[in-house]
Amino acid sequence: MKLKKLPLTYSLVALLMGYFIFSSYSGGISGQSTAGCGGTGCHTSTSTGGTSMTLTGVPPNGWVAGTTYNLTLGLTNMSQVAAGFDLTCSAGTLSLPSSGTQLNGTTEIRHNTPKSLISGTTSWTFSWTAPAAGSLAVTFNVAGNAVNLNGLSSGDSYATTVLTYAAASTATAPTVTLTSVNAINSGGATVNGTVNAHGASTTVTVEYGLTTSYGSSMNATPNTVTGNTATAVSAVITGLAPTTLYHCRIKAVNSVNTTYSADSTFTTLSTAPLPLAPTITGVSATAITTTTATINATVNANNASTNILVEYGLTAAYGSTKITTPATTTGNIGSAVTAGLTLLTQATVYHYRVRAINSVDTTFSTDMVFTTMPTSIQDIASSPYTIYPNPSIDNLILKSDNAITHIEAKIVNVLGAMMPANIENMGNTGYKINTQSVVAGNYILYLDINHTKYYYPFTKK
What gap in Å lies between CA 121 and CA 13, rounded to an integer? Predict the structure, then answer.
């Protein structure tokens, strides 16, 4: 009988050993966070799939050294009934394991009892204290397994994942200043400012719209700012409505926070600039001869087509006109115009002015005069003024009892060559005419005093 019982005893022992070998580790097993659950004697090397895991509680903008965070490990599988896990961290310490879990040292936590999946999900909580110092990233290795609780190692759905979290940056929120809005036209403007990223890569845009709700935005140039110094940024806004008030501000976003500049406003211009009356500058008479002269001026049409002519005559009533070249100007910049006067009388004073006419108004320059040249000395009166000494050495002195408002002088030699003479106003004592530039000989002094021509013969020693 005893011999017959021995095979039965051995068969029972072998059956129990096979159960423990081939059944899953429902109480969990350490050291599987990286290797996973397959091919370890725990579960089969083939997973049925469908398992995913999440870890929450570490701030997305990075952990702070020495801070304790409450973490939640979540596992999802819609086709299984229970789950377990193994998790390790590369730095910091784990603590406060929730029910159904246990610590293995300070850097590993695992389940010790399978946890039921409710609507395909379950989770475990624990605490993690970040490293006391340093800025290296911390890695969490997680192995999770969803099972059917059939007591066998087959039909399981396990997965592994690696989650990395960086330390919080020492960066701060960006600072922003809107400095100006320029280049404003009927359809756009340029917004300018500065942005300090304060150590975190910062994205810069300009917001704009009809109210302080803005509604539209445009990337600034540069669009990304780094470093710890103020960087100039700008954005060219287009597609705006003419003659419209717009609000704008600069927006800067980094990993720490979002900063806005103060609101600013600008008004776009009308579609076409408003026309104004023309303006006239730079009026002069040149190339004066016995019977001709050229009148010069610069005319700005101020955005309205403008016709230009010169009025001239023997008095300020004028009486004659001459169209300029060009006769018409447009736009909003000064244009040079000229008019050649002919058939004038020699040795005669002429008055002249420039007239410019557009749809807004007519503009006149001030009255001016020039004197045509004489044909010969017979056309010039002998000087009635006291002039001395004669012969001259270095200067001639001119005395007058009447007020002199205009005086010009030229020296002509016996061959007819003319040269300008330097005149110095001596106040109540008269005028000094310098003769140092001419050599010894006989000359004629041509004078234009109050626009009347005179001559005075003299000798230079």
Answer: 38
